[in-house]
Amino acid sequence: MRKYWKIVITVALLTSIVLIAISNEYPSPFVEMEVKGVRLDVFGQNPVVLLVDKEGKRALPIWIGILEANAIDKELKNMASSRPMTHDLLYSILLQARVKVKEIKIIDLRENTYYATLFLTIDKETIEVDARPSDAIVLALKSKTPILVSTKILNDQGIPLLQENATGERYGIRIQELTPALAPYFNFQGQKGVLVSEIIPKSPAEASEIKPGDIITEINHKGVGSVKEFEEICDALKEVKSISILLFRDEKFKEINLILRP
Q1: Helices (DSSP H) in 150-249: which residue ranges?
Q2: 38 touches 44 (CB < 8 A)
């Protein structure tokens, strides 16, 4: 009996090693992404939705329509419309019909047009529906389901983000390095700045007007050009009740007074 279990364990270990080797040799065909915000491009002033992978290594900008941009922005800000908009109506129909959005995949890029697929679950059966990426992203945000992008698309079209000291967080403001390749998608032409990637709930920053996609350029009139500088300046501000933050948003600079304590 012991000999039998030894054989079973040995086979299981060998199988695991083989599967790991195969997974390393053949990477996943899709990468899960997060929506970081919607902005206007610097050249044509057209809406762009920015997707970033979970590890913060690469970003993918996708140009979309103004209506879809507004819908995505509302979902990111948890804003409800007074009356159901088109995406609200579609999502309500899916709920009433007991159809679940399993995931969305951005699968192809042909002639500068991205193609996506909606994966819907109906009575335990999964069906695939062709969709525009913008519409699919709105439904994914509403249903809180994964947004996946083809690895090939990300390799070809993705913008690399810095890895060393790439992210930091203070006062509920999570920031990342603003690379030269990423800056134009936020219409930023300045010399120094860091990108706000997330505002942490129930933090001092949540009550402020700082938003993901903002670019912080100064803290208490000191220039901020990297994650390290951001952290060092914030850490030096001990026992202060508020700090002044100069940020860039929608082609304008704005000063925010961040209240840290009453």
Answers
A1: 151-157, 227-236
A2: no
Q: What is the structure's pLDDT at 179?
A: 79
pLDDT digits (tens, 9 = 90+) for 101-129: 999 999 999 988 999 999 999 988 999 99
Cβ-based burial of 66 (10 A; exposed 0-12, middle 13-18, buried ≥19) = exposed
Close Cβ partners of 60 (under 8 Å, ≥ 6 residues apart): 33, 50, 51, 52, 149, 153, 154, 157, 158, 159
Using CA atoms, how far apart are residues 69 and 133, in angstroms rounded to an integer?
Answer: 11
DSSP structure class, residue 89: H
Confidence at residue 40, expressed as pLDDT on a 0 to 100 scale: 73
Query: Any bridge partners for residue 223, and if so which?
Result: 218
pLDDT digits (tens, 9 = 90+) for 58-86: 889 999 999 999 999 889 888 888 888 99
**Pairing, β 215-219 against β 222-223:** antiparallel
> Could you give the angle at which helices 86-96 and 133-143 cross, rounded to 10 degrees?
60
What is the pTM (predicted TM-score) of this model? Answer: 0.64
SS3 of residue 32 by DSSP: strand
In whole angstroms, what is the distance from residue 64 CA to residue 48 CA? 6
d(CA 129, CA 134): 14
Other residues' Cβ atoms within 10 Å of the Cβ of residue 14: 10
**What residues contact residue 3 under an 8 Å CB cut-off, 6+ apart?**
none
